[in-house]
């Protein structure tokens, strides 16, 4: 348990990283009928991230590692910046199954271990819940289990976004719904805010309403609204009034305009478009430009063979003037119901 007198800070993703964690793809059921190209998409992601930070990759076995190394060598990733860690996993979406890396008052890294229950939707997560413990052990870092009201707190990394100065954004749909995909039954907003303050050093929470259509996590914020610096967010907007995302995203924008940062100042809100609906085998997929990942070298942005790809990349390029903005083809990746941010997890230096 966290002692009450210890203060933690959750650094922002846009701050300098020591490493990025990913899990090399292994569960073919996540991309039924489309698994073959997925390792190559991961290879492209690692190629860019490895240019300016370590990439720590979880693999299942020696053979799994060899397959990953072959892909990474083929795409010209910097293998001197790649480290492998062995652990059998279920699904390997590191944003959600991985831990939060926080800093204490001495600027030491602490692993905060939230409980993972596969988005309160799937049964195969018993291996993934071992990921935070493995990471803490391998890196020799202290690990603290997040608890509240005498029970472990369920929280996925994709359900929160943060500016590194004490403000966090999340959605009511994901955390407050007590009927669908329930994370922590009976928790109030006050309960969550106490957890965020205790374990992540959060003093200010901005509550949005709903996530996007097709999101099987039931409302993750990393598909809708993201911090790009300490006082600016990008938020996705739908221009088709007949699209199911139109009204929820309009409401989220209004909440952002009325929100305040931890110091009482207004939030700077920048709008980016949604791509046209991506449908595969009759299923709406959670395609969103907001699911980008900020690495030391570049901001990697999912693209969808859409005319709006160029617009989204242009807007983000104007916001991130200190690093490249690179599009990563994600039409195959999104069939797994997640893209770039979902599969990565930053470890701040």
Question: Which properties best describe this structure?
Answer:
3-stranded mixed β-sheet; 349 residues; L-arginine/glycine Amidinotransferase, Chain A; alpha/beta; 4-stranded mixed β-sheet
Summarize the helices and strands and which ones pair or pack.
Layout: E1 17-23, H1 38-49, E2 54-59, H2 62-74, E3 82-86, H3 94-97, E4 100-103, E5 109-113, H4 118-121, H5 131-139, E6 143-145, E7 147-148, E8 151-152, E9 161-162, E10 167-171, H6 172-175, H7 189-200, E11 204-208, E12 225-229, E13 232-237, H8 246-258, E14 268-273, E15 279-280, E16 283-284, E17 293-294, E18 298-303, H9 308-319, E19 324-329, H10 340-343, E20 344-348
Parallel strand pairs: 1-2, 2-3, 5-6, 10-11, 13-14, 18-19
Antiparallel strand pairs: 1-20, 4-5, 7-8, 9-10, 12-13, 15-16, 17-18
């Amino acid at each position: 348990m966290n002692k009450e007198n210890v203060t933690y800070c959750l650094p922002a993703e846009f701050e300098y990283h020591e490493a990025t964690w990913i899990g090399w793809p292994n569960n073919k059921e996540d991309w039924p009928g489309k698994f073959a190209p997925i390792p190559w998409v991961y290879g492209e992601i690692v190629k860019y991230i490895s240019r300016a930070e370590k990439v720590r990759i979880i693999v299942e076995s020696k053979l799994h590692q060899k397959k990953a190394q072959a892909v990474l060598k083929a795409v010209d990733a910097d293998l001197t910046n790649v480290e492998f860690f062995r652990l059998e996993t279920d699904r390997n979406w590191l944003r959600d199954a991985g831990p939060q890396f926080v800093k204490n008052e001495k600027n030491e890294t602490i692993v905060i271990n939230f409980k993972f229950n596969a988005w309160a939707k799937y049964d195969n997560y018993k291996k993934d819940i071992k990921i935070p413990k493995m990471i803490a052990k391998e890196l020799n870092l202290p690990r603290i289990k997040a608890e509240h009201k005498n029970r472990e707190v369920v929280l996925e990394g994709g359900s929160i976004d943060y500016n590194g100065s004490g403000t966090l954004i999340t959605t009511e749909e994901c955390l407050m719904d007590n009927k669908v995909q329930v994370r922590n039954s009976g928790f109030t907003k006050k309960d969550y805010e106490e957890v965020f303050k205790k374990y992540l050093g959060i003093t200010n929470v901005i509550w949005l309403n709903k996530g996007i259509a097709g999101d099987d996590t039931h409302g993750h914020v990393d598909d809708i609204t993201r911090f790009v610096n300490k006082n600016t967010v990008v938020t996705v907007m739908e221009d088709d009034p007949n699209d199911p995302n139109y009204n929820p995203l309009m409401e989220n924008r209004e909440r952002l305009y009325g929100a305040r940062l931890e110091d009482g100042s207004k939030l700077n809100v920048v709008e980016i478009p949604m791509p046209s609906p991506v449908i595969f085998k009759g299923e709406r997929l959670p395609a969103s430009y907001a699911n980008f990942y900020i690495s030391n070298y570049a901001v990697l942005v999912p693209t969808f063979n859409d005319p709006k790809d160029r617009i989204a990349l242009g807007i983000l390029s104007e916001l991130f003037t200190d690093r490249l903005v690179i599009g990563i083809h994600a039409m195959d990746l999104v069939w797994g119901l997640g893209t770039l941010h979902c599969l990565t997890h930053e470890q701040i230096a």
